[in-house]
Give the backbone structure.
Amino acid sequence: MNKPNDRPHFRDSPLITAERLNANWNEALKLLPEWAGIAHVLPDRLHVVVGGKHPLPMFLPPLEMAVLAETTRFGHGVVTNANGSGPNGRAYAKLSLRDAADRNPTVRRYLSGADEGTAVKPLEIVSDYSASNSYFVSDGHAKRAAREEVLLHVKALAQVHLAPRELDAYLANLNELLQVLDGGILDLPEAAE
């Protein structure tokens, strides 16, 4: 019988690479970080629920899920926050950087690579976190370039867990996933049934 501690940890699983996603994204994303609660595989994306106090459904294409999973591999996470309460309240997903509680960009800003002074809004479906469902707006509250900020903290935390050669491979893989996301060049097949 498996004990709770016998459960495989995402941190120890193989890197999610563009090649693994192309070969079989459903298999590559079988083990996810703990923040990705209740996960369901749909033909072209994953449905995960994040957050405790403000649970939020997120629909993520495989590439966006892989980017978030690799970004949070060593202890960063995805959490929810709410603006307001009641019928006008709105929950949203943001990265939770372990070593920088005051610098947690929204998931949309990170995935889109938003620059300083730019916010990212959903085009149509609020729970759809695909890159194609976003647009940029000016926002004076966005004080930093989201991706640049996150990658500094990802590297700092990964250095604690990895030897230099492993660190280089991990960061190169994450950068490749981000480049593929930005270029929109990965055309993945639907999940195998």
